Amino acid sequence: AVVQTGLQASFDGPAQAAAIDTDGDRIPDSIETAWGLSDPRLEDSDGDGIPDGSEDTDRDGFSAAGEARVG
């Protein structure tokens, strides 16, 4: 079940919890934490004006959000 709390939705289960994206950068918090490359509370962790989900830090042609979706 999804519970709406202001602008943030919260989830009540492990699968749903994996999809929480506090900063709205299209990378789930659990992945941002596991990768250790970005802050799940900041849309643009490195302050370069590009949201974390749009970054291609490993320069492979895929955005971080795209890589998070496919694993």
Explain what you see:
By secondary structure, the protein is an alpha+beta fold. The chain is 25% helix and 11% strand. The protein is built from three helices and two strands; from the N terminus they run ββααα. It has a two-stranded antiparallel ribbon. A hairpin with a 2-residue loop joins strand 1 and strand 2 (8-11). The radius of gyration is 12 Å and the shape is globular. Mean pLDDT is 81; it is low at 1-6.
What's the SSE blueprint?
Layout: E1 2-5, E2 8-11, H1 14-17, H2 29-35, H3 64-70
Antiparallel strand pairs: 1-2
Give a short overview:
The protein has 71 residues and is α+β, with helices and mostly antiparallel strands. The chain has 3 helices and 2 strands.
